[in-house]
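INFO batch 0412 | record 1 of 1 | parsing
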Amino acid sequence: MTNSPKILAFSGSLRKDSLNSKLLEIAVQGAKDAGATVTTVSLADIPLPIYDGDLESEHGMPANGRKLKDLFLSHDGLLIASPEYNGSLTAALKNMLDWVSRQEPGEPRLACYQGKVAGLIATGGGFGGARGLLHLRQILAGMGALVIPEQLTIANGAQAFDENGVLKDDGQRASAASIGANLASTVGKMTA
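INFO prediction complete | emitting C-alpha cells
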C-alpha cells in the first residue's frame, strides 16, 4: 500500500481491564499489518464534562475536547470498540462523540466526521454488543461518516477471553484483525 492511512482507535469503555479494549488491540494490529498508522487513545485518559450547551457557551470547548477534535481531524478513519450498556453505547462514548461534533468558528459543520471511515467491534453479554453497535452505526452515519458494513460482535465476552486477556477463539481473533485490515484498506482507497 503506497498510502499509509491514519486511523484513530479507541474503546467506549473506561474500565482498566476492559474486554473491548483487549478486542480493540487485535483489530489495531490487523490495521497496522495492512499498512495503517494507528493512534490508540483511552477515553479514561482524556476526561470530558458531560456535554452542556450552557457550559460550552460560557467556557467554550474544554481542552480535552479540543485535543480529541484535533485527533479526529488529523486521522482518516476511526476504529471503535464499544461495549453495550442497557442496549446502547456507553455514556462516555456518546458524550465524547457529542463534544467532538461541536462546530467551532471557521470549521465546517461536523468536520470531525464528514468523510471519515469507521470500523466497529464489540464484546459483551449475550448479545455481544450488537444492539449498541446498531446505535453507534446510526450516530456516525448521521454525522457523515461511512461505516464499513463488516463488524464483529462477540457474545459472552467474559468467557471468550482467557485469564491472561487473550481471545481464545482463533476465528474470532482473525475476524477482529480482518475488521482492522478492511478499515485500513477502505481508508487507503478513499484517501489515495
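INFO post-check: Helices lie at 19-33, 53-59, 63-73, 91-101, 130-142, 157-160, 170-191.
INFO record closed
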